[in-house]
Amino acid sequence: MRALCTLMASMLALAACTTEQAYDTAQGWQRNRCGRIPDKAEFDRCMSDANRSHDEYKRQTEPEKK
Fold this sequence. Notes:
0% of the residues are buried. The protein has helices at residues 2-16, 19-34, 40-50, 54-61. The protein contains four helices and no strands.
């Protein structure tokens, strides 16, 4: 039941956020996870991805407009 409440609260919070705010929050969580990686090269790759800006992410994921 607690997990369901947490999930519902998260969904409501995200609905009130802009996509950029949600992206920034997710990137913070990813940076936290990167900090647990002992291998330096893997840590660097993880942090590089976690520090990608929302605009850069959108450019890389949106299909090319003709």
